[in-house]
Amino acid sequence: MNPCFQNSMRTRFARKYRLAALALILAFSGNPLANARQYASAIISESHATSSSHSIDSDPSTFSELEAGTGIIIGIGSYSAHIEMKFPEPVPANQTSYVRIEAQDNILPSLMGGELGNILAGINGVSLTGNQEFSVEAKNGAAVVLSGNSTNPISFSGERLKVVVDANNHTYLAITPNQSYQSIRISNFVGNLVGLGVTKRLKVWDPYYVEQGSSATPQFTSYDSSGITLELLEMGGGAHNLERAIDGNQDSYSTLSLGVVDTASSITQRAYLEGLSQPDDVFAVRLWIDPEVMQVTLGQGIRIRTQNGANAVTNEVLQSLLTPADIAAIMNGQPFTVYITPSAPVDRFVVTLNGLLGVTASQGLDIHEVFSIRIFGDDYEDAGKSTPGYP
């Protein structure tokens, strides 16, 4: 083996276990940097909104409701609803705001799939057009700088606008415009397939963002995919139990599956911090991979990336992060943990499974947990959940 490669592996191995040991020792201490949430504080405009003040009261337990209806006569009396909430100061470009929402119809899980939305809706037995519909806009004064509509699932794909969930499987909109903005407008509609005298409600909690340097623990997660077929989804492929990758329980896990790959395809899960991390935070992800697949692919189809908003900070193939102990764990069918030091502020941790052609085994992976270890000078603290990190 190349001596330089051996030395690199030994260095990674020693550092990895130093971090893992410190995570075990300090796992139960609290995070000293509490997240400083900046909430929307004023209503610019509203229509058919109940308890609208609950969307600007800085209380995560209260919400407003937007009611849209069809009326009782064809073509007469139908109405939509909206609420526009304003932050005290303009929010910088690329700063992500979060707002929890809950729809009466079960449309949000399908929108998490972005471009897969209509396929997922069919599997879930709902329609994204003609029934309950909603839109979201990020605005700077009268100018709309980012928007999405539930009838167009692709508007919720990519980096700028996503439907995400927290560890409790509550649903949020993650809004990351590439321009400065100061208000969030959410509207609720009923489509033309809904009968007369029907109302649809949409719950809206407080929009907020978290300022720089105060966040280290992943709070939200989402996924994207490409090249995935209806047949694969019906056979159980795709993304499952996403929230388990950020729930603080390293025995639970999310699953990404591409099945046996015969066309170019990929699937990505993201874990979001509420705000930017410290430059010296160390991130960790605990994975499980089928040993049979690992023998063939050597981890080349898996990439792990950190980002600041939509911009990549680090982007590494899994193979380059593995120590000999990791490889041994994989081949013994055990989970393993890899560590990444971005050396710059980040707010997203991204795991992508790219399907490799010519592999006859089903390709997938489990994500047991995404967490971080915060470093203060020579002191370390597990900035993950209450469950300790494993070596």
Write the SSE topology.
Elements: H1 3-26, E1 37-39, E2 42-47, E3 49-50, E4 64-69, E5 81-91, E6 97-103, H2 108-111, H3 117-124, E7 132-140, E8 143-149, E9 161-166, E10 171-175, E11 181-190, E12 199-204, E13 208-210, E14 218-226, H4 230-234, E15 238-240, E16 254-259, E17 266-273, E18 282-288, H5 291-297, E19 302-308, E20 311-317, H6 324-331, E21 336-340, E22 348-354, E23 363-376, E24 379-382
Antiparallel strand pairs: 1-13, 2-5, 3-4, 4-12, 5-11, 6-10, 6-12, 7-8, 7-11, 9-10, 9-14, 14-17, 15-16, 16-23, 17-22, 18-21, 18-23, 19-20, 19-22, 23-24
Keywords: Signal
Explain this structure:
- The protein has helices at 3-26, 108-111, 117-124, 230-234, 291-297, 324-331; strands at residues 37-39, 42-47, 49-50, 64-69, 81-91, 97-103, 132-140, 143-149, 161-166, 171-175, 181-190, 199-204, 208-210, 218-226, 238-240, 254-259, 266-273, 282-288, 302-308, 311-317, 336-340, 348-354, 363-376, 379-382.
- It has an eleven-stranded antiparallel β-sheet with strand order 3-4-12-6-10-9-14-17-22-19-20.
- The chain contains six helices and 24 strands.
- The radius of gyration is 22 Å and the shape is globular.
- Mean pLDDT is 85; it is low at 1-14, 17-34, 376-380 and 383-391.
- The chain is mostly beta strands and 391 residues long.
- The chain folds into two domains: 8-34 and 214-382, Jelly Rolls (Sandwich); 37-210, Jelly Rolls (Sandwich).
- A hairpin with a 4-residue loop joins strand 9 and strand 10 (171-175).
- Residues 1-34 form the signal peptide.
- Keywords: Signal.
